[in-house]
């Protein structure tokens, strides 16, 4: 048993030593910033670069929010493709000397296949009325899953045909690498868009909470950090982690209060086939209607309030903010472990001072899954609008059958008068 452990340890060390060094990313900082910050130490120079670029990215994010839901979806898709590119590129750089046949082509082919499947599901789910009016789309939607499976099988067969005797194991490594990357990027981006359709607030509050936690944890760690948090990320400190937690919870509560007042943010995103536009108009649900709550006795003595007026969604914001600040960072720790395994500092050098796009969105992927699970578990109920769209797709005789069954049920419940029968 001891010999087996030693052999496994030696194998692990050998595998680590076999990984070639990846060239460090080049410095993409604009020359104007380099000259302006030339007199500062490396620590403060990085602080200012990160701060300026963070403000620029946040400003751009607000602009896209103003442009509407469709632009947000395009943003999510763009980020997904870029993150996928950064991870796949690492694999190519690490193993480039093997010159694997079709690796890059197959990687992008599988990305197209998976996106075709997920976005096709979204079109069938949310754009049923639009699809019904176009015969060519009806065929694609009716056989969507079969077409998706056929496309994937084509890629699978291409992979098998590309196998080379000397590199079987490495090629299967890359096959697994591609599929895990697809799971991390495409699946999560699909969930982000699903959350967006529930209402922009379910998109903005979680994403903004992660961004807030990332920024405030960095600030608290920069000025007050003394105690290391985790070995995977030596710069992370307990002071930054705790400061980021409290800041994020407060931010989420206040930000939710602001967003809950506007239909644009709280209404489900729906596609209007008559105007060919996404609309966010509705009667806000109870989650976004002001209610009076009793303050717990222990807090009454501190605050001096017996009751407080707030939106019910603000209570849910506590769950979202808590997850973003306590569990979300583990996505970043996971990414740090991945980078250490392949001896790289950042996924890319896309954003000066920040690294690649994946470096900035590593925590968002856990958040997207949590929000989706949270909505389906605690929030989402039957959706009459979506059900009606599905009914309109049915054949006339099927619609009539549904009508008769529903009418009979309503009569039995006493909602319709028996005199209306027949």
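^ structure tokens above, recovered residues below v
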């Amino acid at each position: 048993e001891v010999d087996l452990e030693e052999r496994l340890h030696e194998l692990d060390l050998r595998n680590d030593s076999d990984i070639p060094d990846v060239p460090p990313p080049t410095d993409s900082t604009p020359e104007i910033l380099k000259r302006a910050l030339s007199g500062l130490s490396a620590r403060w120079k990085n602080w200012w670069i990160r701060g300026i670029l963070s403000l620029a990215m946040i400003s751009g994010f607000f602009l896209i929010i103003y442009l509407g839901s469709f632009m947000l979806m395009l943003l999510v898709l763009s980020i997904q493709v870029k993150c996928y590119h950064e991870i796949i590129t690492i694999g190519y750089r690490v193993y480039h000397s093997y010159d694997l046949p079709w690796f890059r082509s197959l990687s992008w082919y599988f990305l197209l296949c998976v996106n075709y499947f997920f976005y096709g599901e979204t079109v069938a789910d949310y754009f049923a009325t639009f699809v019904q009016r176009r015969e060519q789309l009806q065929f694609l939607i009716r056989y969507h899953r079969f077409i998706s499976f056929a496309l994937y099988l084509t890629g699978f067969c291409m992979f098998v045909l590309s196998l080379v005797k000397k590199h079987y194991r490495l090629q299967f490594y890359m096959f697994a690498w591609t599929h895990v990357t697809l799971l991390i990027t495409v699946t999560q981006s699909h969930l982000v868009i699903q959350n967006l359709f529930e209402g922009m607030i379910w998109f903005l509050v979680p994403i903004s909470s992660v961004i807030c936690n990332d920024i405030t944890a960095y600030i608290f760690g920069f000025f007050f950090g003394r105690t290391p948090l985790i070995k995977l990320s030596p710069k992370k400190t307990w002071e930054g982690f705790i400061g980021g937690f409290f800041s994020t919870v407060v931010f989420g509560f206040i930000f939710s209060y602001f967003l809950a007042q506007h239909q644009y943010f709280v209404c489900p995103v729906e596609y209007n086939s008559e105007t060919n536009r996404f609309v966010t108009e509705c009667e806000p649900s109870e989650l976004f209607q002001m209610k009076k709550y009793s303050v717990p006795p222990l807090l009454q003595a501190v605050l001096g309030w017996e009751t407080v007026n707030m939106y019910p969604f603000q209570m849910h914001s506590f769950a979202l903010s808590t997850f973003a600040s306590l569990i979300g960072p583990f996505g970043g720790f996971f990414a740090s472990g991945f980078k250490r395994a392949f001896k790289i500092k950042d996924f890319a050098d896309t954003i000066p001072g920040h690294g690649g796009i994946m470096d900035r969105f590593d925590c968002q992927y856990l958040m997207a899954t949590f929000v989706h699970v949270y909505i389906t578990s605690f929030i989402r109920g039957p959706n009459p609008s979506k059900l009606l769209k599905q009914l309109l797709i049915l054949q006339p005789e099927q619609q009539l059958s549904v009508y008769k069954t529903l009418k009979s049920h309503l009569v039995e419940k006493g909602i319709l008068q028996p005199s209306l029968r027949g």
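Strands lie at 228-230, 233-237, 270-272, 277-279, 291-294, 307-310.
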